[in-house]
Amino acid sequence: MAEHYVGVLGIAEAMGVTRHAVHKWRSRYPTGSAHPFPEPDVEIDGTPGWRAERLEDMVSWRDGLPGRGAGGGRPTAARQEYFQAALGRGLDREEATRALANFAAEFPEMTEPELCAWIIEKFTF
């Protein structure tokens, strides 16, 4: 049975950023730096891959980025709407972020805006 890994594109979609942002993070925060980007679990022909369950680690890593504030700036509109709906159901931001990362790992084919809209609709926050 084949194992499933997430590449740069999958990480970008799950986190609501561009592939370019993930590439920049990897180059700006290499192993050995003060805040290194999580190392890939596998590399095939120079292409990195991470186990899907590590998306949560990457969200936590991003939330700890220095500079523009926790999370690296303002969340996307879809994420803001999701956080607002989650708050209405009693989840704090950290719990909502973990839940979103878990759903992103479970449904890697969905973009973050699609996932946020689906969660809001499906679970009628």
Q: How does this structure look, described?
A:
This protein has 125 residues and is mainly α. 51% of the residues lie in helices and 8% in strands. It has helices at residues 8-15, 19-28, 55-63, 77-88, 93-106, 112-122; strands spanning 5-6, 42-44, 47-51. The protein has a 3-stranded antiparallel β-sheet. Strand 2 and strand 3 form a beta hairpin. Helix 4 runs parallel beside helix 6 (112-122). The longest helix has 14 residues, at 93-106. The chain starts with a strand and ends with a helix.
Note the run of SSEs as H and E: EHHEEHHHH
Largest sheet: spatial strand order = 1-3-2
Roughly how much helix do the residues carry, as a percent range? Answer: 40-55%
Sheet with the most strands, sense and barrel status: 3 strands, antiparallel
Structural class: mainly alpha
Q: Which radius of gyration do the C-alpha atoms yield?
A: 15 Å
Task: Please tell me the overall pLDDT.
Answer: 86
**Tally of separate helices:** 6
Strand content: 5-15%
Would you report the number of β strands? 3
Unreliable residue runs: none
Shape: globular
Beginning-to-end CA distance, first to last residue: 37 Å
The oligomerization state is single chain
